[in-house]
Write a structure and sequence with these properties.
By secondary structure, the chain is an alpha/beta fold. The protein has one domain: Rossmann fold. Helices cover about 40% and strands about 15% of the residues. It has twelve helices and eight strands. The chain has an eight-stranded mixed beta sheet with strand order 3-4-2-5-1-6-7-8, sandwiched between helices. Strand 7, helix 8 and strand 8 form a beta-alpha-beta unit. Helix 1 packs across helix 11 and helix 5 packs parallel to helix 6.
Length: about 290
């Protein structure tokens, strides 16, 4: 199956989006999948969460605006099968500079295409900033699908409606007609509260199979892991958070396998071009005399 790319987005901050990117990527890499994380957020939390330093000039800024190959920015992490394109604070300037460029909504798409075409990775995860600005729009135009991390709180529902409208607009406008929602990940779940259970129930009622069955709990260990520069499965593999993300990775892979089978079944071999059969040609009357 060709490289699949996913943007993890939510305009609301603090919903567990970056934790989900880092943790899910690490679990997939642990399962033998080749994963590239692209930190598209000037806060660079995915960069530090994977144990990498934030270095000036080492973000996607030059790839978006000056034609630098994205592949030149790839760093290997200490975790097998998991690579990173880091970010740093200067990427914030892209919100101002990218709109001045030609085909400004397609800058990331054009930069990402060579990496996707190379087939080096099974999955590419883009960690978007917590906004619906130009960086997030570029990410959504450049990827195949979007994953939405949704905190189990009431206000998260309003934010979900907004981002789904954006997805529909990008499809209908032709900016990315194939963009689809891969799934909604319910995060920061606290089973002791009625509200968390009500939010999960409400989201599942409206979005059914788009919602991952795995729910990510709110845990201290998940909060601690980024300060050590490690994904949760490398920080505390036996914690509740690690168990949840390992389950999410299995569910994610099952979805990809199902999508691959569906795509294969949809491939229809074109029938041979229609033409007179040999018997029809034999039965046809001979041509009449040519009249001068």
């Amino acid at each position: 199956m060709p490289t699949q790319s996913f943007a993890f987005a939510n305009q609301k901050g603090g919903v567990g989006k970056t934790t989900t990117v880092v943790s899910l990527a690490a679990c997939l890499a642990d399962a033998g999948k080749r994963v590239l994380v692209i930190d598209f957020d000037p806060q660079a939390n995915a960069t530090s969460g994977l144990g990498q330093e934030k270095l000036e000039g080492h973000s996607v800024y030059n790839a978006l605006l000056q034609g630098q190959p994205l592949s030149a920015l790839i760093r290997q992490t200490e975790f097998p099968n998991l690579d990173l394109i880091p970010s740093e604070e200067d990427l914030a300037a892209a919100e101002v500079d990218v709109p001045r460029a030609e085909r400004f909504l397609e800058r990331f798409k054009m930069a990402l295409e060579p990496i996707k075409a190379s087939g080096t990775y099974d999955y590419i995860f883009v960690d978007c900033p917590p906004s619906l600005g130009i960086l997030t729009m570029n990410a959504l135009v450049g990827v195949d699908r979007i994953c939405i991390a949704l905190q189990c709180e009431y206000y998260a529902l309003e934010g979900l409606t907004v981002i789904l409208r954006v997805v529909e607009h990008l499809r209908s406008s032709g900016a990315n007609p194939a963009l689809d929602v891969e799934g909604i990940v319910m995060t920061m779940f606290d089973g002791r509260t009625n509200l968390a259970n009500q939010v999960v129930e409400e989201v599942r009622k409206h979005f059914t199979d788009k919602v991952f069955k795995t729910v990510i709990p709110r845990t201290v260990r998940l909060s601690e892991a980024p300060s050590f520069g490690k994904p949760i499965i490398h920080y505390d593999r036996h914690s509740a958070g690690a168990t949840a993300y390992l389950a999410l990775a299995k569910e994610f892979l099952k979805r990809q396998e199902a999508a691959e089978k569906l795509a294969a079944a949809a491939v229809v071999v074109a029938p041979p071009a229609a033409g007179p059969s040999a018997s029809a040609q034999a039965a046809a009357p001979p041509p009449g005399p040519v009249v001068p």
